Amino acid sequence: MRTIAFHLNCLVKGGAERVVSNLANKFAQEGYKVYVATEWYDENEFVLDERVTRVHVGLRKEDENKNRITKFFLRIKYLKQFMKEYHPDLLIAFAQRANYRALMAQKGTDVPVVISIRTNPTGHYDALSDKIQIKWLFPKAAGCVFQTTGQKEFFKPYLQDNSTIIINPINPKFFDVPFPAEREKAVVHHARIVDFKNQPMLIRAFVKVHKKHPDWVLRIYGDDSHDGTLEILKSLISENKAEDYIFLMGDSETLEKEIVKGRVYAFTSDWEGLPNSLLEAMALGMPIVSTDCPCGGPRTVMEDGVSGLLIPIKDEDALVDGLNKLIEDPELCERLGSEASKIKERANADAVFEQWKDYIELVLNRCGKN
Question: Which SUPFAM superfamilies does the UniProt entry name for this protein (predicted)?
Fold first, then answer.
């Protein structure tokens, strides 16, 4: 029986955590022995299959008052202990710090480590400390999973050569959702309310769109990240006296039913890894205006003019033009939405799992673990 382990900080509801929980559950269902090694537990987490074993590898109660450097090395020590005790055939690390920890803990074990890049490397992997750790640690990786070509091209050829690109699986509840008989004249957006999503640009742009199309509204769905962005959005709505046509809807457990009530979808991030919200909107068959943000997530899944409209980041005028174009051309909307919905062929859970499975088996065979 193959034994694989995933390592990440926790399973709180988020993009990487959803991918790990889905993969762990699917591998367990396929007969693999699966471990998920996490640094801590959280209240609002994804649920694991009962056949998946979760192991705490983070700090312990007696470590709380120790200094930062000591805690850093203890995290590596506890992960190494896990690798030696449970001895998985392969450890797959998710996200930046987990990548570093896994490769440090690998020394003295014979457990190969696959790392994964889940965000824009520019701004996250280019500080001096990152450059030092990457040069020292990344050559030790048995492989790497990227989400976009832009991520892959950021790193040296030695990492590219042993890598693959696998996009995120889409939650199946976003597949085959029927449009309501009467759809609202509404632009919709759903994402966490946080600075890099640039929802303020969306509000400013829609104020201009509304002057031309006063019967249209904007609905923004998403929970507050508490970084001050929500307060900025509220202030913009108030300043523009837009309370009657721009609505902050908060989070929703039935987004798949809410998004399709609108006719146009807007995505405005300044940077991303591979955004789940964009994939979900595509799966719903929404006509989309999206920023062509680094590190290439939208461009990886969307073709400009075919399955959506791509615009430069932080270009408010281009966003206004794109929204007006879709509002005024129902035939274009239908064509773009129909093409966008085909993403489910590439990003359904089974298709993504098979890509992960094939790559994991390739790495294991390359490492002599037949």
Answer: UDP-Glycosyltransferase/glycogen phosphorylase
